[in-house]
Amino acid sequence: MSETRGQSAVGLLREQIQFAHFALEGTVEDVSAELATTSSPGKVRPIGSYYAHILIAEDIAVNAFLTGQAPLFASAWAERTGFDSPQPGDPGQWLAWSNQAVSDVVSSRDYAKAVYAATEAYLGRINDTDLAQTVDLSAVGFGERTVGWLLSVFVLTNCNWHTGEIACLKGTHGLKGYPF
């Protein structure tokens, strides 16, 4: 078992993902429906699109790729995510979708809690050995990767990257970015 200061790799990953969720939710806490859909100049996308992308990517990573079930947005949470249309499966279409999709951060927060709970439940079922198992991500252009890679990149890193973008966008509107 891999250990960092007496903690398993899964335990460490769990703490990091929990903190990423805390930072994201604190960052979007004061984002109004209007601000969530406000466009910015250049190639920057609206805050709501980034929030939707973070949640959908985690939902797909955990519920589709890791557990083999339908993502929550296509099953228990269909029509209740706060997004007017699902993110396209083709990453090349995301930019066009993100400029026209309506994503209401306020109504998406319950869906976010369900996604986080699914991630937490999954992490509670695995051990460090499971992190080395491979997952076929060819459908999204990443080939064979490990469970650890998928959780580290699609869940943790993706959340952190886009939370930073959301924090910066809030700053351009005169709001505090991160909650700390």
Label this structure with key terms:
180 residues, mainly alpha, Four Helix Bundle (Hemerythrin (Met), subunit A), two-stranded antiparallel sheet, 6 helices, 4 strands, globular
Description of the molecule:
The chain is mainly alpha-helical and 180 residues long. It has a single domain (3-172), classed as Four Helix Bundle (Hemerythrin (Met), subunit A). Helix content is 54%, strand content 6%. It contains six helices and four strands; from the N terminus they run ββαααααββα. It has helices at residues 9-28, 33-36, 47-66, 94-100, 105-125, 147-172; strands at residues 3-4, 7-8, 134-136, 144-146. The protein has a two-stranded antiparallel ribbon with strand order 1-2. The longest helix has 26 residues, at 147-172. It is globular and about 45 Å long. The mean pLDDT is 90.
Give me the secondary-structure topology.
Layout: E1 3-4, E2 7-8, H1 9-28, H2 33-36, H3 47-66, H4 94-100, H5 105-125, E3 134-136, E4 144-146, H6 147-172
Antiparallel strand pairs: 1-2, 3-4
Helix pairs in contact: 1-5, 1-6, 3-5, 3-6
- CATH homology group: dinb family like domain
**Total beta strand runs:** 4
Give me the secondary-structure category: mainly alpha
Shape: globular
Q: Give the terminus-to-terminus CA distance.
A: 34 Å
Instruction: Assign the CATH topology.
Output: Four Helix Bundle (Hemerythrin (Met), subunit A)
Per DSSP, what share of the residues sits in E-state strands of 2 or more residues? 5-15%
Q: Strand arrangement, largest sheet?
A: 1-2
Q: Can you give the helix content as a percent range? A: 40-55%
Query: How would a textbook summarize the main sheet?
Result: 2 strands, antiparallel
Instruction: Please state the second-level CATH architecture.
Output: Up-down Bundle
Q: H/E element string?
A: EEHHHHHEEH
Low-confidence stretches: none
Provide the domain count.
Answer: 1
Enumerate how many helices there are, as a single number: 6
Average predicted local confidence, pLDDT: 90
